[in-house]
Amino acid sequence: MIDSHVHLNRHEFGGEAGAVVERARAAGVTGFLNVGYDLDTSQASIDLAERFPDVWATVGVHPHDALLLADDQGRLTPEGGARLARLEEMSRHPRVLAIGEVGLDFFRDLSPRPAQRAALAAQLELAARRDLPVVFHVRDAWDPMLDFVDEVGLPPRRGVLHAFSGDARAVDWALERGFKLGIGGVVTYRQSTLPAMVARAGCDALVLETDAPWLPPVPHRGQRNEPAHVRLVLDTVAGILQMEPGEVERRTDATFAALFQPGKAVTP
Ligand SMILES: [Zn+2]
Questions:
Q1: CA of 31 to the centre of ligand 1 (A)
Q2: What percent of the chain has pLDDT over 90?
Q3: What is the CA(250)–ligand 1 centre distance, in A?
Q4: What is the pTM of this model?
Q5: What CATH class does 2-264 carry?
């Protein structure tokens, strides 16, 4: 059972990443993809991956921080160019499996949309150059996002639509193009439309995640999330698909392995 999206570097975990990883292992978690969202957290993800043999890293700049790379007119800045070069250098680390999280966030709009698009385009190019899959963050921007990726070109190694919250069109878009859906704690929420999308996508289009410390599943809402809780996501997905949890575990693990190829990530 793999947590394909976690932020063990967050201050919410204090200095306890070791204890959090231990608890998750005891709950059956065999791998963690620690996702960066700016330069510092990309480096922190690499540091964690060097410290724990079952943790891997991604490097990338989140749409909230798109101004690190581009200006409000959507032009890459000189400082942004230097940061992209630094990201590329980090992406060569053997335990970095993907570029991300990158994408569009029109819900919080913490950076101007032209900057978000420019930062995304530059990092999709990086993913293509480095032959790495992409971890996407999309919020209230599904149609713009899917159209944008079609327009600029699909990343050759595809990727995951993390914290999937799209509609049927987004599911079908992903299925047709070979992208996977990242399913986390939201699937356990009573009012969620996600179960219907999970059923539409089918088991082999899914990877499991927690997004810890955020988005805790039922019955942990309002608390700090932990990678150990990916078990609750697994059980809920199995219920939706009317499958044995063990079968869902085996197949989502296989999907993760085929997409991210952690076996190639040699410990330095
Ligand atoms: Zn995240």
A1: 16
A2: 96
A3: 23
A4: 0.97
A5: alpha beta
